[in-house]
C-alpha cells in the first residue's frame, strides 16, 4: 500500500510517496524560508500565495519521482491541523480535490503527531516513548502511547524556542554578521556561540516558581533585549550595528535556552517513571523540530537522557523540519493501525489550533 503525504501548514510546501515499509519512493519540498526571512517574518497571505503557486508542482514532482500514479495510491494524507489557516487551506483543498477525483481514502494529519512519529520511520522505536518537539512554532513535551494516543505533559505558554532565537538574532542583526551568511536565526546563534564565553552574561532561568513541564521564552527574550540595549549604550553604538561581545551573548542565550529545556524534560522523565507511564528498562527520549539540530541543546539532552537511563533518539536534521515524508509516514502508521482513514471528504476542515493528545499538565504539576 502506498500513501501520498502533503504538507502546507506553515511555510514549506512538501509532498512524498511512501510504501508501507517506510521506503521513500519520491519526495519534493519547496521552502519559503528565504522569502519570509527577508520580510522579517511569515506574512500569512504571502505564504498562502506561495503554497498556491507551488502545490501542484511539488505533488507532481513527488509522484513522478516515485513512478507511482495517483490511481495506485492507497490513500492521501494531508496536514489539516495545527498551523496557519491560510496555509493549511491550500494543501487541504488540493488534496480533497485529488481524493475526490480519484476516489481515494483521505487521512487527516495532525502536524505535531507527524513530527513525533517521524522517528519510527528511521529507527525501531516501540510505544510508549517520551517526545520533545522544539521548533519555530512549537515547544511540546508529550508521551506517545500509540499512533493517535498522546499524553500532553507540557508546552510553551508563550512563544517557541526557535521563535525566540530568531527574534534575538534579528535584534542582534546577525544577518549582517560576516560569519552568519544565510543562516536561520537559531543556527547563527549556535555558530557564534561556539567562540563565545557564556559566563560573561547570566540570564535567569524561566518559570522557576512553576513545578510543571511548561515552557516560557518571552520573558527571557525581554531580559536578553535589555542586556543588548545596555551593552549598546556602553559601546556607544546604535541598534543594527554589531556588538563586539555578540558571541558571548549568543553563548549565554543558547545556554539558558538549553538549561530551561533540560530542566523541564528532566521533570517529565521523573513523572513518567514514577507513574509507570514509561518503563525504566525501555524508556526513550525522542527529540525533533528545527531547534533539535542545535548541537549544544542536543548534547545537553543526550547527557540528561543517559543520566536517567533513557535512550536518546532524534531523526536526521532534514526530517526534523517540515517535510512531506513525515506526513506520508503518519498516513502509513494510521493506515496500518486502521485509525482515522476517511472514505468521504464531506465536512473535512482545517483547524489552526489543535492540542496534541490528552492534556495532563495539571497532574504533572500536582505530582511534582
Ligand atoms: P513548526 O514546525 O512549529 O511549524 P517551523 O517551521 O518554524 O515551526 P522548523 O522548521 O522545525 O520550525 O524549525 C525552524 C526553527 O529552528 C527556526 O526558528 C530556526 O531558528 C531554528 N533553528 C534552525 N537551526 C537551528 C540551530 N542550529 N540551533 C537552534 N535553532 C535552530
Ligand atoms: Fe513543523
Reading the helices and strands in chain order gives EEEHHEHEHHEEEHHHHEHEHHEH
The overall strand count is: 11
Report Rg.
21 Å
Strand content: 15-25%
What can you see in these coordinates?
There is one protein chain. The chain has 368 residues and is of the alpha/beta class. The chain is 45% helix and 18% strand. It has helices spanning 33-39, 44-66, 85-102, 111-117, 119-122, 161-171, 185-193, 218-235, 246-274, 295-307, 317-320, 324-337, 361-367; strands at 2-7, 12-19, 24-31, 75-81, 106-110, 129-134, 139-146, 149-155, 284-288, 311-313, 358-359. Helix 6 crosses helix 7 (185-193) and helix 6 (161-171) packs parallel to helix 8. Adenosine-5'-triphosphate (ATP) is lined by residues 10, 135-138, 162-163, 165-166, 184-187, 190, 289-291, 293-294, 321-322. It catalyses: L-threonylcarbamoyladenylate + adenosine(37) in tRNA = N(6)-L-threonylcarbamoyladenosine(37) in tRNA + AMP + H(+). Residues 24-329 form the Gcp-like domain. It is found in: Mitochondrion. Pfam families: TsaD.
Q: How do the helices and strands line up, and which of them pair or pack?
A:
Blueprint lengths: L1 E6 L4 E8 L4 E8 L1 H7 L4 H23 L8 E7 L3 H18 L3 E5 H7 L1 H4 L6 E6 L4 E8 L2 E7 L5 H11 L13 H9 L24 H18 L10 H29 L9 E5 L6 H13 L3 E3 L3 H4 L3 H14 L20 E2 L1 H7 L1
Parallel strand pairs: 1-4, 4-5, 6-9, 8-11, 9-10
Antiparallel strand pairs: 1-2, 2-3, 6-7, 7-8
This protein binds adenosine-5'-triphosphate (ATP) and fe (iii) ion (FE).
